[in-house]
Amino acid sequence: MNEEGCDEPAPVPTTTAAAAAATTANIHSADLTVGFIGAGKMAICLAKGILKRGIVKPDRIVASAPTDRSAGLFTEAGMRTTRDNREVVQACKVVFIATKPPVVKAALAGIRGEVTGDHLIVSIAAGITIATLEKALPVGAHVVRLMPNTACQVGEGAMVFARGRSTTPEEALLLQELLSHCGMCLEVPEPYIDIHTGMSGSGIAYAYMFAEALADGAVKMGMTRAVAGDIAAQTLLGAARMLLQTKAHPSQLKDDVSSPGGTTIYGIHELEKGNFRSTIINAVETATARASHLGKQD
Ligand SMILES: NC(=O)C1=CN([C@@H]2O[C@H](COP(=O)(O)OP(=O)(O)OC[C@H]3O[C@@H](n4cnc5c(N)ncnc54)[C@H](O)[C@@H]3O)[C@@H](O)[C@H]2O)C=CC1
Ligand SMILES: O=C(O)[C@@H]1CCC=N1
């Protein structure tokens, strides 16, 4: 319980110097191999980010899927694909589970016999808990639950992860090193992962909707779509940099823009009439609940 009497997840342990040294040795091993069970949109985003880090060569990454639909995205970057999930586990130390959530249990059942204590199994499936992953894999399997977003593809992803019972701090560091060109990657208590899914995994789509709506407004006022689209994107980028670099509260930065009787406060009033902030809070709440629900489905 915290001071307010609320349940609070236990803090995550910090990394030791010994763990960092072991990770450095591991990450520079020429043998490091990375696999993806599921070769879809999120798998290719992560694979491209891992390649940018430069420690894993394309020919040491393999992805599996039942169809060749998205295989081209992997092969054109020099990675290998297969239709056999077990081949991925046989060939790779770090294996991302990147199928849709309802398929995860069946996919894990298919690879269970191949998973050893040398593997690091990293699920990115929305809602699927560490308990579910550990139950589906051999006892003692090293499991991580990770939630990325699609901006990993351009190195600006927001990722959180939690470790399973047998997963070591060294393995957590190895994962963070692997993903260091995908964006920020924080270890968090597991209950935060569904929240992150609602806020960021899904939330990046809300940001795109905001950008689209800004541009629509500008088009309505007579600007061309191309100019409006670029300015909308740069406006979001500028706001994000201001938040991250100044560490100021969003309301402070908002107040700095709002002159008394000026243009901004007129625009803000319109947003408030449309329940702007309340609508976004509701979206995060609903998407978080949906993530939790996906994890409970059989
Ligand atoms: N798309 C996104 O923005 C994000 C997705 N995720 C999670 O990533 C996972 C994948 O999502 P997407 O990439 O969007 O989906 P997707 O539909 O693009 O990719 C799924 C892939 O799994 C393959 N697949 C289906 N059954 C399989 C099986 N039995 N064995 C191996 N592969 C199989 C499909 O052929 C496809 O290549 C989901 O669990 C989702 O919750 C997490 C964060 C963000
Ligand atoms: O919509 C979804 O289910 C996935 C999970 C987070 C983002 N996309």
UniProtKB/TrEMBL annotation:
It is an enzyme of class 1 (oxidoreductase). GO terms for cellular component: cytoplasm. GO terms for biological process: L-proline biosynthetic process. Its EC number is 1.5.1.2. Residues 33-127 form the Pyrroline-5-carboxylate reductase catalytic N-terminal domain. Keywords: Amino-acid biosynthesis, Cytoplasm, NADP, Oxidoreductase, Proline biosynthesis. The keyword Nucleotide-binding does not apply. One of its GO terms (molecular function) is pyrroline-5-carboxylate reductase activity. Pathway: Amino-acid biosynthesis; L-proline biosynthesis; L-proline from L-glutamate 5-semialdehyde: step 1/1. It is found in: Cytoplasm. NADP(+) binds at residues 37-42, 98-101. It catalyses: L-proline + NADP(+) = (S)-1-pyrroline-5-carboxylate + NADPH + 2 H(+); L-proline + NAD(+) = (S)-1-pyrroline-5-carboxylate + NADH + 2 H(+). NADPH binds at residue 85. Residues 190-293 form the Pyrroline-5-carboxylate reductase dimerisation domain. Signal peptide: none annotated. Oxidoreductase that catalyzes the last step in proline biosynthesis, which corresponds to the reduction of pyrroline-5-carboxylate (P5C) to L-proline using NAD(P)H. Proline is synthesized from either glutamate or ornithine; both are converted to P5C, and then to proline via pyrroline-5-carboxylate reductases (PYCRs). PYCR3 is exclusively linked to the biosynthesis of proline from ornithine. PANTHER family: PYRROLINE-5-CARBOXYLATE REDUCTASE, PYRROLINE-5-CARBOXYLATE REDUCTASE 3. Belongs to the pyrroline-5-carboxylate reductase family. Homodecamer; composed of 5 homodimers. This is Pyrroline-5-carboxylate reductase. The lineage of its organism: Eukaryota, Metazoa, Chordata, Craniata, Vertebrata.
